[in-house]
Design a protein that fits this description.
Elements lengths: L2 E4 L2 E6 L8 H11 L7 H11 L3 H7 L5 H12 L24 H12 L11 E8 L2 H17 L4 E5 L7 H4 L8 H5 L5 H4 L1 E2 L5 E4 L8 H7 L2 H5 L8 E5 L5 H7 L5 E7 L5 H13 L5 E6 L1
Parallel strand pairs: 2-9, 3-7, 3-8, 4-6, 4-7, 8-9
Antiparallel strand pairs: 1-2, 5-6
Helix pairs in contact: 1-4, 2-3, 5-6, 12-13
Length: 295
């Protein structure tokens, strides 16, 4: 990981495909449960090295642990509800739902701390904007995993998909897209009515909603955070993701947020475009912006 500060933007580099090194604790939990013997840990590590699987997955493939036993061990390890590896209620790219201590997930926690945003179940909701610079896919994955991290911490979390032309979070969290942000901006509907509960405790999603020819005009005309305000008292954290939007629309959506995370692709995203977007967001009064570089 590389971390550096420039103006009020912080940058960290992560590799979302890398596996966690926290196998020791999971192994200890499995031994403590009587699921495996200490001498079997080396066998699991060898299989893990040969297959590039997670420690838990390797133990299941070797027939040493059942999926149900692994899930119990992971929940004891992390202190949060963990989805089983074959659970299809959430897309596997939402790594935090299946492996809360994966290296990618830990980096997202660091970025949240870098923003200086303290999540709490007391007081007003904290609003974080997530966007990308030539990195719409990466932006969506950062936002989805950030939302799960917040929810696992016990905060009631709302993830808002502002990608009106390219909806993504209805697919990641298996919710329907019959109504959503496009509905909210084009009507007087209450935002809470549009929020759908996910398979993750404490996490709700407002999807992008039906495609509209005037999607850009809606985002230009309406302040998204302002339209979300009636729901703020029901949530502790609100994450607005708009990775596929043009920079002026991202800046428009940033009005009223407490911090922003920008995803960029190493060696691919334009640094000039990044600096321009950071400047535009700063002009909207966003106090802190973090940049997460995906390799």
């Amino acid at each position: 990981m590389r971390l550096r500060s420039s103006a009020n933007a912080l940058t960290t580099t992560v590799e979302p495909g890398r596996k966690t090194k926290d196998w020791r604790r999971l192994g200890e939990v499995l031994v403590g449960m009587g699921a495996i013997r200490k001498d079997q840990i080396d066998d699991i590590l060898d299989h893990q090295a040969n297959t590039n699987k997670l420690f838990g997955e390797a133990s299941v493939e070797l027939g040493l642990v059942t999926p149900a036993m692994l899930r119990i061990a992971q929940e004891q390890q992390h202190g949060v509800k963990v989805l089983m590896q074959d659970d299809e209620s959430v897309d596997r790219r939402v790594i935090a739902a299946f492996d809360p201590h994966h290296e990618f997930v830990e980096r997202i926690r660091v970025m949240l701390l870098n923003l200086g945003i303290m999540l709490s179940t007391q007081g007003a909701a904290k609003i974080v904007l997530v966007a990308g610079v030539d990195a719409a896919r990466e932006s969506a994955l950062v936002a989805a995993n950030l939302a799960v991290v917040c929810a696992q911490g016990g905060t009631r979390t709302l993830l808002v998909d502002a990608n009106l032309d390219q909806p993504v979070h209805n697919h990641l969290f298996r919710v329907n897209n019959r109504s959503g942000v496009s509905t909210l901006l084009a009507s007087t509907d209450a935002p809470l009515r549009l929020a759908q509960q996910t398979a993750i405790d404490n996490l709700w999603v407002i999807p992008a909603g039906p495609s509209r020819p005037d999607a850009s005009a809606l985002l230009e005309r309406e302040q998204l955070v302002h339209r979300l305000m009636p729901a703020m008292e029901d949530f502790d954290a609100v994450i607005v993701e708009c990775g596929s939007l043009l920079a002026p629309l991202v800046a428009r959506a940033a009005i009223g947020v407490h911090g922003a995370m920008l995803a960029v692709r190493e060696h691919e995203s334009s640094m000039n475009d990044l600096r321009g977007l950071v400047d535009m967001i700063n002009l909207k009064g966003v106090p802190q912006t973090s940049v997460i570089m995906m390799s």
